Amino acid sequence: CLCVLLLQLLTLSAAAQMVTSFELKGNTITANLAGSLAVMVAIHTGGGVSGAHLNPAYTFSLCLMEQFPWWKFPVFVFVQTLGSFLASGAVYILYYDAIWNYSNGTLTTSGPRETASIFATYPASHLSLSNGFVDQVMGTAMLITGVLALLDARNKRVIMGLEPQAVALLVLSIGLSMGFNCGCPMNPARDFGPRLFTYVAGWGPEVFRRGNGWWWVPVVAPLPGAALGTFLYHLFVAFH
Predict the structure, then answer these.
(1) How far is 7 from 10, CA to CA, in rounded Å?
(2) What residues have CB less than 8 Å from 98, skipping those under 6 apart?
(3) From CA 74, how far away is CA 122, in angstroms rounded?
(4) Residue-level pLDDT at 84
(5) What is the DSSP letter of 90?
(6) Distance in angstroms (rounded) separating the CA atoms of residues 7 and 34
(7) Structural domain range at position 144
(8) CATH number at residue 93
(9) With 80 as the cut, is the pLDDT of residue 149 above it?
(10) Which alpha helices (H) appear in 51-162, and where do they start and end?
(11) Residue 49 above 90 pLDDT?
(12) Rounded CA gap, 19 and 98, in Å?
């Protein structure tokens, strides 16, 4: 829970700084960089204790490979989501004055002064639900394939101890190249925990309605994406 909290605290803080400063104190590149470095810090923090399960998609992949017991899957997903929820509350407290100043005293999910996207992802105006679903399947598949390759002792794995840095660079590359459609969450807990927080913190039910009910896509799509990434890696690499 602590490593997920650290990950989300740094990631969402970068988004809050970017949005509330009118991008004077950050932009898409700095937000992606902060999120990637947050992954590195979180893996260093929890890697030796829990394996740094920051993403239910990664946990799901390990379950599919029978490297993690299925009965622990819902427990880990709950803890991952809880950590994301608590981190959202911490960021809200940290940037409370900035958020209310930027939003002119109204917490909205759309419009020129919306602030909901600080916490959860929302689709671009051009994106359909079907295309968004494909986006998340492909992005998560890329993530899981890359992580499996980096950690595979039979492959050209990274030097022992540098795994967090390598995974951070992988996340950065995916975020910079595939983040245009919807911010590339690739993580059900990373999206649902903060979205649930915004629901109870004052943004209201619109956080689940915006984008034609977009909220379920980043929750569901990463799981088949993880399955696809696991299958592709084992079929084309590990099998050989």
Answers:
(1) 6
(2) 16, 20, 21
(3) 25
(4) 96
(5) H
(6) 10
(7) 1-237
(8) 1.20.1080.10
(9) yes
(10) 56-64, 73-94, 96-102, 129-151
(11) no
(12) 9
* Domains in the chain, number: 1
Question: Tokens at residue 224, please?
Answer: 């088949």
pLDDT, tens digit, 9 for 90 and up, residues 106-144: 999 999 999 999 999 999 999 999 999 999 999 999 999
Instruction: Decide: 4 and 79 in contact? Cβ < 8 Å.
Output: yes
**Closest to 127 in 3D by CA, of 176, 175, 182, 177:** 182
Q: Is the pLDDT of residue 177 over 90?
A: yes
Distance CA 68, CA 91 (A): 32
> Of the candidates 25, 22, 27, 13, which has an alpha carbon nearest to the alpha carbon of residue 101?
22
> What is the predicted pLDDT for the residue at 238?
86
The C-alpha torsion from 122 through 114 and 86 to 55, rounded to 10°, is: 20
Q: Which region, left, alpha or beta, applies to residue 213 given φ > 0 means left and ψ of -120 to 50 means alpha?
A: left
As a whole number, mean pLDDT of residues 183-211 equals 96
